[in-house]
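Dear U.,

For the methods section draft, I wanted the exact inputs and outputs in one place so we can describe them consistently. I've listed the two proteins in the order they'll appear in the manuscript figures. Please don't edit the token lines directly; just add comments below if something needs changing.

First protein:
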Amino acid sequence: MKKTLFKKYLRITTAVILASFLVVSVTILLFVTDYWKHEKRDILFRSATNVATLAKSYATEAGKNVYVINANTMGAFTMTFAQNIESDIFITDTSGKTIIASYGGQGGVVDVSKPVDAKIMRQVLQDHYSAEGTMNGRYQNNYYIVGVPIIKNENGERITIGAVFAAYNTETFTAFRWSIVQMLCYALLAAFAVSFAVVWLFTYRLVQPLRKMASAANSFGKGNFSVRVPISRDDEIGQLAEAFNNMADSLASSESASRSFIANVSHELKTPMTTIAGFIDGILDGTIPPEKEKYYLGIVSQEVKRLSRLVRTMLDLSRIDSGALKLRPARFDLTNTILVALLSFEKKIEEKQIEVQGLENAKSIFIEGDPDMLHQVVYNLIDNAVKFTNEGGYLKIEIFQRDGRTTVSVENSGPGIAQDELPMVFERFYKTDKSRSRDKNGMGLGLYIVRTIVRLHGGDIKAESEQNQFTRFEFWVPDKPPKHMAEQSRLVETTADSPEEHQK
């Protein structure tokens, strides 16, 4: 049988409640029993002492140091005391012979024909006596028994004239204790019923969201990422449900990005492969004349390079996810890196008549970082800027140091980016140009790689834009990155012979 969390929690909680009630009940029973026992013995002792005091008052001298207790008078007093404390009271002389006996308790009658045991009498006459038993056969069952001496002082002389015994039947106490046990049992059953109902309800509410999460997880396993767990509480379970829903959103987004990625890759592969196959077939079957072969082979070469860039971009993404490479920090001139990257786009800048601004008075700025990786960052940002700058527009690049960090800003005129798209430009596979009219070679990975590299160096990047006005990307890196950053995984390799491979 399947052991559910609900049953386990309910079983454990029930066992804890039962054990707690049992411990409390036994403790209460022992405490009440002990208290009642001591209280009863104190009552017996006080009553016996009072009777002894009265007995010596009604004792008359029958000879030298010989006193006689008035049985008629004392009989009435002892009976009253015996009935009040529901106990037996009897008076004996110094030899243990019973003089007066009064029965106020329940149980068998004392056998007054037998004298009190001499050992008991010696103990009583010396001080007092307290015990539980049958008093050497005087009772048929156990009694709580106390005894005190009757002492009379004459002319400063201490004379013992007898003893008073008070006895309480233990069967009465057993009945009292059983009544307490019954009362505790009823209270235990009532409290357990209420506790069980509360625990059952609490446990059910506790595991219900978990069951919904399990059901949703099963749906995720079948490819359905639309299921969400309702959040109806503000505790750890509610936080778990919220985190679960966030994970579901992330999975759904990842699934959508993966599908988009597959579509993009399929498109990117199909176009160059179709072009390559068509031109090669045309050369082989003679459709393309020999004098045109060099021209079309050049087109084939460009398409092969395009496929190579696609494969290398996928390898870069794989390294980002796996962290397979290491940072190689070194001290280098970041200004020079920017100038070298900018020269790579000299032809495109001249073709679009773009005005380059901001580097007229640039000075050398040295930082510590991975030169190749930061070159890729600058290259990608300039590539995007040149690509989307309008004819006759401007490209503004600024670099400055302040507060222990170096900041690089790349701004260009042009159509800009919509405000609702700005937060997503650094996501994988995201392309602002859905039509591909200006971004035919891109796969939406360039800015994601840029942000990853910058954060790997301990910095960050942000984007600002106004449509039909400008777009600005600004990133910063610390002049001296933390030591532990040098041991982190290197996410992307750069290739010196093919910088275009890092285009978005």
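Second protein (the one for the lower panel):
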Amino acid sequence: MRGRTLSAGVALAVFAGMTVTPAAQPVVASPTTARTLARPIAATVAALAAPDISVSNVQAHLTQFNTIATNNGGNRRAGSAGYTASLTYVKTRLQAAGYTVSEQYCSSCRYPSNNLIAEWPGGPADQVVMFGAHLDGVSAGPGINDNATGSATLLENALVLAAQNPTMTKKVRFAWWTDEEQGLNGSRFYVNSLNTTQRGYIKGYYNFDMVGSVNGGYFINRVTSTTAAPLKAYWDSLGLQPEENVEGQGRSDDYYFQQAGIPTSGYAAGASARKTSAQAAKWGGTANSAYDPCYHRSCDTTANVSATVLNRAADGVAYALWQLAVGGGTPTCTGGQVIGNGGFETGSTPWTASSGVITNSSSQPARTGSYKAWLGGNGTTRTESLTQSVTVPAGCASYTLSFWLHIDTAETTGSTAYDRLTVQMGSTTLATYSNLNAAAGYTQRGFNVAGFAGQTVTLRFTGTEDSSLQTSFVVDDVALQAS
């Protein structure tokens, strides 16, 4: 979020010359609420239940942005190598998911660089619902809460929309803005590039700026407006009692859309303003302390994010998107068990495993049957893997990956993770276990993997040991149930 409030009298010039061709659990409002909800965009069909957005997946994007900053001078400021790498990361994921993606060069920005615009196929071109967040940060640090949280929240929502592939009643457009921190320049350039007809197509613009503050509140831009209704309905259903985003007025990318007559709203969790005693009483956190104590500082890293606040924002975006733009049709769920040979009893197919990993050795008993996957247990420096390519069906209501895991170890430390098992779906790390997690018997582990619906990804178990003292990671009865 930009540091100073813009004057309300700033004039907006709209040019007609340039056309941009866009390349926690879900809680749904009661039927009574849904019927009486005032909507800024006419919705004549009942929206489908919105998907649960995996906060772990959003956090994985934050980790990528933090790494990008670390590898590029410590920041992701507009026009910098860190910003360019951030844009490339988002763009690559969107293109792989099937979005039409384009870059718009902001020649009038203080640091000339590109906006990123992405549209999902489907829905009428003259009925656009737009979701935006600024991708840049300040030069002082990696800019994770401000504003990798907004950027990652929209990216994961975009990927889930692509995976679910529902019938669309509106055109959904996502935007990642450059040069926000220097005066909202990227979004201003975009709005100025639209002619009157194009502006009229945008029925609502939703902005997400700092949605994971560690001492955060629950703020909505223009909270009483009809545009804000779906955002507010979701947070109301959680009993959060959201408030107007007073601190953020005129300070983020919704400003120029609003000035152009486009209805706007959005979520925020707060910046340098201080939480009141009344807010702390209803939301938790620390009264008389900043919502974000690392605002525009070097400590704005992945540690500077509340997973709870972030999760509620991500799910609220999904609820609003589904309410506003998703119709009554969706691919039929062809559910059931997706993993092949999850108990390892019928040979190695369709698994690919390091030599000796799939075994009936009596040294480590299977949970059921005779076979299991045994990674580690060598007592020497070694890496072993177990993988399976998995096609996750679209259109299902739930997706649960589970497996049973037994860990035993000869390590004697109670504090150092010498040996590790990493579990991944695609490029996302679901969990990491170590010798510190050793325990008698098998324990079932489970994960919500709805974010991979409609995709073919690799499920991967990777075991690594150091030079001495074995740790065994024994996996059995792997399942991915879609229903």
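Candidate sentences for the figure legend, describing the second protein: The chain has ten helices and 19 strands. Residues 4-47 have pLDDT under 50 and may be disordered.

Thanks,
Y.
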